[in-house]
Write a structure and sequence with these properties.
The protein has 444 residues and is of the alpha+beta class. It has a domain at 5-22 and 313-440: Neutral Protease Domain 2 (Neutral Protease, domain 2, Orthogonal Bundle), CATH 1.10.390.10. 25% of the residues lie in helices and 33% in strands. Strands 4-7-2-1-13-16-15 form a 7-stranded mixed beta sheet, with no helix packed on it. α1 crosses α6 (373-394).
């Protein structure tokens, strides 16, 4: 996910047991989201839209309500409110929670176990000035985590974590997405999904995109140049207002990342990837089939790595953030070795002694109580280093088998720490896993 500033500073200094069972969905499991969006560029920008959500009830009892995550209200804690929604009758909006970033919706009628249901709504998102994943980078509108998605109810209960400014607390399930976007003809839009059609007629540009499986839908809109390249059958579209050097460098880094990760981890999950290279406050931020990044190889490669670690293999980022950040950091340090400060003999030695008591698999809430640098030291730096230690111990071939096992087993699903441990046992059954767990500071 987002490379925090503390992590960027750190990087700059470096110039056969039974198969693991996946997380069990026990509530509304989305099948499809259909969007009709219109973007007004005046002021800080406004995104208006209609949304239809189709879902299956995976629970054991009839489903009478669902929860929506209104993450656009998260960064400013609903002061001011950035998203308003109207639920189409006969469904009814009810309780708001978590500083109005979660909304309960009572369904028109109970949905029986195994049956499908639908929900329709309209929404308005008002832009933010801040340079952030939801905000602006220069004159480019960054619209990350603004489209309502179904909250997850799994075997651990209903998951409604608060928004985090130092990391991610997002947790969503994969579904089909189809979207139509109308915007001023002079602007271009990078989005989740592959372009089905695009045309500019008069003062309006209309873009239709679709993807078979994605956890979320995000956009970046602005006066951006667009260039295309390809790698492993994936169309990579680069959006930037930077010069030719930025275009060449980012295109090279994106192609290399897609080729390398596809070869080592498994195939990319779609036919298109949009890469937005802008003066982003943080190193970058990723969404399914879309990444925001600074013009730096580490940022571009790290965010593309998240297409495999969170985009394809998901996790509960609030509860176990290391499952995507540590794996993505390992990935960029593998491809950009001059950014690697790991000492595999003592993986946790890279962590400031002040917070070496924080387990690698600590939740975001634990890092919220610590200085911002702690999450960079533990989740990014040490997390990558313990994976490098594992590779040194079991060898490159088994490490690749380990990655591919996770990608196959949890593709478009949800991975947990216990699943990682089970996969290690499976590819290296004689390995001293308990010792590695101690080195990794895992609380399991």
């Amino acid at each position: 996910m987002r490379l925090a500033l503390a992590v960027l500073f750190w990087l700059a200094a470096a110039a056969a047991p039974a198969a693991a069972a996946p997380a069990v969905v026990s509530g509304a499991d989305p099948e499809a989201y259909t969007l009709d969006l219109r973007y007004d560029a005046r002021g800080l920008g406004t995104l208006r839209g209609t949304e239809r959500i189709e879902f299956v009830n995976r629970g054991p009892a009839a489903l009478e309500r669902v929860w929506l995550r209104l993450w656009a209200n998260g960064p400013d804690r609903c002061r001011p409110r950035h998203i308003d929604i109207q639920v189409e009758a006969p469904a009814e909006a009810r309780t708001e929670k978590v500083r109005c970033s979660a909304l309960e919706v009572r369904l028109a009628a109970p949905v029986a176990p195994g049956a499908t249901g639908t929900l329709s709504l309209t929404f308005t998102v008002r832009g933010r000035k801040q340079n952030d994943r939801f905000g602006h980078a220069g004159r480019v509108a960054m619209l990350g985590n603004v489209v309502p998605v179904l909250a997850v109810e799994d075997d651990r209960g209903l998951q409604l974590p608060p928004y985090s400014a130092i990391g991610e607390t997002f947790y969503s399930l994969s579904a089909r997405w189809e979207a139509t976007l109308r915007l001023p003809a002079g602007l271009r839009a990078a989005t989740t999904g592959a372009v089905v059609s695009e045309r500019a007629r008069g003062a309006q540009r209309t873009v239709r995109v679709a993807t078979a499986q994605a956890r979320d839908f995000a956009l970046a809109i602005g006066r951006l140049g667009v260039t295309s390249t390809r790698a492993n059958g994936v169309r990579i579209r680069l959006f930037t207002n930077g010069g030719p050097r930025v275009v060449r460098g980012a295109s090279r880094d994106a192609r290399r990342a897609v080729k390398s990760f596809s070869r080592r981890y498994g195939p990319y999950g779609s036919t298109e990837l949009d890469v937005v290279v802008v003066p982003f406050r943080y190193g970058g931020m990723e969404y399914p089939e879309l990444v925001f990044a600074r013009p730096a190889d580490v940022a571009v490669v790290h965010e593309i790595a998240h297409q495999w670690w969170y985009g394809l293999v998901g996790d509960d980022q609030s509860r176990e953030p290391w499952l995507d950040e540590s794996f993505a950091t390992y990935s960029h340090e593998w491809l950009v070795p001059n950014a690697n400060l790991c000492r595999p003999d003592r993986p946790y030695s890279i962590v400031n002694p002040k917070w070496r008591d924080i387990p690698l698999d600590a939740p975001i809430a634990r890092f919220e109580r610590s200085p911002e640098a702690a999450i960079g030291d533990v989740i990014y730096a040490a997390g990558s280093c313990v994976l490098q230690r594992l590779e040194r111990d079991i060898g490159r071939a088994r490490m690749t088998a380990f990655f591919q096992l996770l990608q196959t087993r949890f593709r478009f699903g949800v991975m947990r720490t216990s699943d990682v441990l089970d996969a290690i046992r499976e590819v290296a059954p004689t390995y001293d896993l308990a010792r590695w767990q101690r080195l990794a500071h895992l609380s399991h």
